[in-house]
Design a protein that fits this description.
By secondary structure, the protein is mainly β. 7% of the residues lie in helices and 51% in strands. The chain has one domain: Jelly Rolls, CATH 2.60.120.
Length: 141
């Protein structure tokens, strides 16, 4: 069994390099220094990120993803029944993205965030088809 130890979010964020113009086509190599893995957790990992721009679509088949905005602002866009539903997340706010829900981020001014992300993650540069995004958001989120 591995011993746990405290993790400093401030130290983890300080080690990241700001990625100024993230796009859905930004490669893993180009964004490598803007993202960091803090720890493994259950069926995934805890990550931190520091960037501005737009992400590709993604979803997590294995479980819900927890997103926590540490600093800045991001618009989290969920795809439900073919409709793009935006949620503005500000510093100190948390959001639980439902399992298998396609989502992406728009962060024109920059954001520092932490996520608890189930793995693997599916990615799509193009808008996913309606058949792949049929989760209903009418219940509690």
């Amino acid at each position: 069994m591995t011993k746990s130890k405290p993790i400093s979010l401030d130290d983890a964020i300080a080690k990241l390099q700001f990625l100024e113009n993230r796009t859905p086509n930004t490669s893993a190599e180009e964004s490598r220094d803007a993202f960091g893995k803090l720890a493994s957790y259950r069926d995934g990992s805890i990550f931190v990120a520091y960037y501005a721009g737009e992400s590709e679509w993604e979803r997590h088949i294995q479980g819900d993803e927890i997103v926590f905005v540490l600093d800045g602002e991001a618009t989290l866009i969920l795809l439900s029944n073919g409709e793009q539903i935006p949620y503005i997340l500000r510093s100190g706010e948390i959001f639980v993205v439902p399992q298998a829900m396609w989502h992406r981020f728009e962060t024109p001014k920059g954001v520092k965030l932490m996520s608890v992300t189930p793995e693997p993650t599916e990615h799509s540069i193009e808008l996913p088809s309606i058949e792949l995004s049929s989760i209903d958001l009418t219940g509690d989120i």
